[in-house]
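# step 3/5: fold
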Amino acid sequence: MIIRPRPHWLRMLFVLRGSVLPEIAVQLLITAAFAVLVTLCHGQLLQWKIQLNFVPFSLIGLTLAIFLGFRNSTSYARYWEARTLWGVFLNEARTLVRQALTHVDEPAHTRKLALYLVAFVHAARHQLRGTDCTPDLQRLLSAQDCADLGGLRYKPVGLLLRAGNWVRERRQDGSLSPMLVPAMEASMCRLSDALGGCERIASTPIPFTYAVLIHRTVFTYCLLLPFGLVDTIGAMTPVIATFIAYTFFALEAVAAEIEEPFGMAPNDLALNAMSQTIEDSVREMLGEPLPPVVVDRERIFLT
């Protein structure tokens, strides 16, 4: 995801990275070329003059707008829910580390719990993206923990189990009051619930038939539009038809992109940045020095 302040209004007109223009450029070129051809032929296909007016396009456009609005609202709801669930990761990790630091008699043990929680966040990111979490686990955990987790399919769940075992060990050795255990267990349950919510979003896309229906309707609408405009606006037909096509194609592309918020497209969630924020926050609570801020591909600031 691109994280940057809102640029100047003039620069907004020419921004490419983060827009969907590169993804829909071929569709726009096809639409524009066809509109030019229709204009040159004055709406005549072979010997048949195709006469269309604004009425069918108004009716179809209204229906299309409703469908696109539904698709975009549903996709954004998935995107925002995913962002809310990652906010739970941050809040509960901080809460658990704070409780351990302030209520465990030997706070030195807390670092192990904190690293389990950080590793959980990184493992969740890799699981949702289908990437390898081994480098992050090796950086954060002991060789024995990495070996134990190596054979697991759901590594974030295994890390939550180890965090729960840490609480049990502290209770058994008497360094943690049994009265605090339910509070820490509740935080871990919320982490588990948030992980399950992310998995639900990642494994349950919007039904494919919606995408097919909208894509076919948008493409057909944009190809027929020049026939309805050429007798009214003449040479401006390619310009207007391409502009309208850009609006519809872009809305469709944006909905498809944010429908899966855990990917690595420019408008997906910045999971790398959020994972690093959680890790930095936890390490700062432990009193560890933080590394210098590194601007990665997900953090692009325009001055």
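# step 4/5: annotate
The first helix runs from residue 9 to 12.
# step 5/5: archive (pending)
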